[in-house]
Design brief:
Length: about 170
């Protein structure tokens, strides 16, 4: 039975409707980077995972987990799922684009090698719809009512990224 080695829970602000998980030695903007995940949950290359969000106005909630083997699947708890493989040199970074790196060089317990990755998402369309309704109802994003209602939507869109070393 697999056990979780690491769990990190944090808010992330998607830049241009995405955030990027990658090997710390990689420049996510270098030539050969994945294409933006437009219309899909993820876009990947050997060392980078770009996660597509439907947000560019709200923080989303992200959980990153490292496991010592394949974790049990979640079933119907999440609305979307994608899988990929990444090669990581033992350190992981999370890039929010123009906001900078939210994580720079998180040490992975399993070290250097190929990792299997599962990405789960929920409430993507619901959060986007509710933000659009909020904007239509208030029209002034600087108003106190708008800001209070917007705070209630922060973290509604959620992601879980599970990774484990493949031997």
């Amino acid at each position: 039975m697999s056990r979780r080695l690491l769990q990190l829970v944090m808010p992330v602000f998607p830049d241009r409707r995405m955030f990027r998980l990658h090997d710390s030695a990689v420049d996510p903007n270098a030539p050969g980077a994945p294409l933006p995940p437009v219309g899909s949950l993820i876009s990947v290359n050997r060392e980078q995972l770009w996660v597509g969000s439907l947000q560019e106005q709200l923080d989303v909630r992200l959980v990153i987990e490292e496991w010592d083997g394949a974790p049990p699947p979640f079933g119907d708890t999440w609305q979307e799922e994608a899988k990929c493989r990444l090669y990581l040199r033992g350190y992981l970074s999370l890039d929010e684009g123009t906001a900078g790196k939210a994580i720079h060089g998180l040490r992975l317990a399993s070290g250097v090698g190929s990792y299997a990755v599962r990405v789960y998402a929920s409430n993507r369309e619901d959060a986007a719809r509710r933000y659009a309704e909020l904007y239509d109802a208030h029209r002034n994003p600087l108003a106190d009512e708008f800001q209070h209602a917007k705070k209630q939507l922060e973290g509604l869109e959620r992601y879980l990224i599970q990774l484990w070393r493949e031997y």
